[in-house]
Write a structure and sequence with these properties.
alpha+beta, about 40% helix, single chain, six-stranded antiparallel beta sheet, Jelly Rolls
């Protein structure tokens, strides 16, 4: 049962490594997210304030807490247990998009972090003097990040996402469109206002589509979603989506559709959340794996 809880300044709300069975929304005050809490590698990652969520990853997909959260300013929070998630959305349908926006923001930030660490790793690999002051200044953050992290660097399983996709099969509804082979569904650089679920055929995702340096990034097969970051953040599309077969069927979902989608087909909302969760876990894995390699190269 969801309940309001007040935590005094400095009180631990949950610890890194705990098995999470609930998530939280801040009503008053602030909380601090800390990596390596209580160790000599302790680092403050961020502060969250009223309206922010935390701990949602453990509820969307069973997973140990990745950081410790400590109250500041006598924080008042609402705790929502895992088994209350659907009833919470039913009572607060506007929170579906808010949580998606929250996950999308984290994905966007971590993507930028990963791009930066990948660039630094490339420089370290090419450097003749891996212990130079200039190199260390560029990679210290990444060494600190892997040193303070207690996350198991095992590649995340996609099983929960697969199960969620299985539950959506045969449930196409709303705005469903069919595309012929070669049809561009959206272009790189366009402003995205919707997302898609593939029910039939194959959608290719390309960088620099149609140019000499075109790269195929991935294929999207049934049942899976794509284009969600455009819907959530309203940012320009980062790639081009192309129907790879005739009779490629996709459902188009706009932000204003989410409340009705949850009311009629809650498993679709669950699949979208698990997709965002898996994407965030993979980014975290890739980021920390790159940090680990930088640390090993520097200390070799």
């Amino acid at each position: 049962m969801k309940a309001e809880k007040r935590f005094q300044n400095g009180e631990i709300i949950f610890k890194e490594g705990d098995i999470g069975t609930s998530f939280f929304q801040i009503i008053e005050g602030t909380v601090e997210v800390i990596s390596g809490y209580g160790s000599d590698k302790e680092r403050s990652l961020t502060e969250l304030s009223a309206g922010d969520f935390f701990g949602e990853m453990a509820v969307i997909e069973a997973y140990p807490r990745s950081n410790t959260v400590v109250a500041k300013d006598n924080a008042l929070v609402v705790e929502i247990p895992e088994n209350e998630l659907n009833s919470y959305f039913a009572e607060n349908p506007g929170m579906i998009l808010k949580i998606m926006n929250h996950l999308g923001k984290r994905i966007k930030e971590l993507t930028a972090d990963y791009d930066a660490v990948a660039s630094a790793l490339k420089e370290v690999r090419a450097s003749q003097d891996k212990k130079s002051d200039s190199i260390f200044a560029k990679i210290k953050k990444y060494i600190d990040d892997i040193s303070s992290s207690k996350i198991d660097l095992t590649k995340p399983s996609a099983e929960a996402l697969r199960q969620a996709s299985e539950s959506v099969k045969g449930k196409a509804s709303g705005a469903v469109e069919s595309y012929k082979k070669g049809t561009v569904i959206f272009k790189e650089g366009e402003i995205g206002k919707c997302m898609y679920i593939v029910y039939g055929g194959d959608v290719g995702i390309y960088s620099n589509y149609g140019a000499a340096n075109q790269i195929k990034l991935t294929d999207i097969y049934p049942v899976a979603c794509f284009g969600e970051m455009g819907m959530i953040a309203g940012d320009p599309r980062s790639a081009t989506a192309v129907a790879e077969t005739d009779e490629t069927f996709v459902e188009i979902i706009n932000p204003e559709d989410l409340e009705e989608l949850f009311r009629t087909t809650p498993v679709k909302v669950e699949m979208i959340l698990k997709h965002l969760s898996y994407r965030l876990r993979m980014l975290t894995y890739d980021y920390l794996t790159a940090c680990k390699e930088i640390n090993e190269l520097f200390n070799s």
